[in-house]
Design a protein that fits this description.
By secondary structure, the chain is of the alpha+beta class. The protein contains 11 helices and 14 strands. It has a 4-stranded antiparallel β-sheet. Strand 2 and strand 3 form a beta hairpin. Helix 3 (80-97) packs across helix 5 (122-137), helix 8 packs across helix 10 and helix 9 crosses helix 10 (248-265).
Length: 303
């Protein structure tokens, strides 16, 4: 007998496999390989670094000025599924609008209603605001190493933002109401944007690591050469996705538990797992039917 969860995954896989994506979401290729913290880091951890393949990501927690006190206040690192969804939203709005200026309040509510199927309650909204503030204040260093050396972008993803404080001090959250992406990040995004299926993101929105695995496979599998599968060892997978896991056996169980959800969100993804790790096989990208149109938009924006 098929469980409710299994039926939901089956319906998702069927929908994605049989109809093209109507709505696309974008992620920077480096963020698809080197993700933000999946869980809240300890309070004293203000720097996050990840490497995967040719990509490197370094994030430093930032400070924002409190308009009431006039003093800068330290924020933590952005983390979890909400930070990922917020960043995807900013990326996608920038690509759609062909502009680095994002009217957050006019677009974010609709975005999260589509993904979550409901409006956010007060507690969730405050968490979203806190993550958006942390994301806006953080310093990012993104690097790609190639045959001709390393290209590095030192930037804040958000170059300018307005802060608004709630009237109730007990619920005070610094809230960027209008954002302008830094031009360094904006033009790098247009050059290195990875298109994703919004239906897949909505299905995985509850789990930071499931989102990370999907994004990683979306930018990686179509680059695997036919007939030349690539093995990623469990040690490497734990370094990339296993924040908080000290025992590889526990991580492997956790990782295996997420794969059915990721496979349903990306039905054409081809991979195998065994005692050595995860073998990646050449697969079509998740939104290949729209790649020509997307590539045209991106190339036009960069010209």
């Amino acid at each position: 007998m098929v469980s409710n969860i299994q039926q939901r995954l089956l319906n998702l896989a069927t929908d994605i496999a049989t109809s093209p994506a109507d709505d696309l979401i974008f992620i920077h290729t480096i963020m698809a390989q080197c993700a933000l913290p999946a869980a809240k880091p300890p309070k004293d951890v203000m720097v996050w670094e990840r490497r995967q393949g040719r990509a490197t990501l370094l994030v430093e927690a930032g400070r924002v000025i409190n308009p009431k006190s006039g003093h800068f206040e330290q924020l933590g690192l952005p983390y979890g599924p909400k930070a990922r969804l917020l960043l995807m939203h900013l990326n996608s709005e920038a690509v759609r609008r062909q502009s680095p200026i994002i009217p957050v309040e006019d677009t974010m509510t609709a975005f999260f209603r589509r993904l979550m199927g409901r409006s956010q309650d007060g507690r969730e909204l405050r968490r979203l605001k806190a993550q958006l503030s942390a994301l806006a204040a953080a310093q990012f260093r993104l690097g790609i190493t190639g045959g001709e050396g390393t290209v590095q972008v030192n930037t804040q993803i958000v170059g300018a933002f307005n802060l608004w404080l709630e009237k109730d001090e007990s619920l005070r959250v610094m809230w960027p109401s209008c954002l302008k992406l830094s031009l360094d990040y904006y033009y790098s995004l247009l050059k290195h944007a990875v298109p994703l299926d919004e239906r897949a993101i909505a299905a995985l929105a509850h789990s930071a690591v499931a989102l990370d695995i999907y994004c990683w496979l979306a930018q990686r599998l179509h680059r695997v050469l036919p007939g030349k599968p690539q093995l990623v060892t469990w040690v490497n997978l734990q370094e990339q996705f296993g924040q908080g896991f000290t025992r590889i056996r526990k991580f492997r169980e956790f990782f295996h538990g997420l794969l059915p959800q990721v496979q349903a969100a990306y039905p054409e993804a081809r991979f195998e797992t065994d005692g050595h790790g995860m073998t990646l096989l050449q697969s079509p990208p998740p939104v290949r039917k729209r790649l020509v149109a997307v590539s045209h938009v991106l190339s036009g924006a960069g010209s």
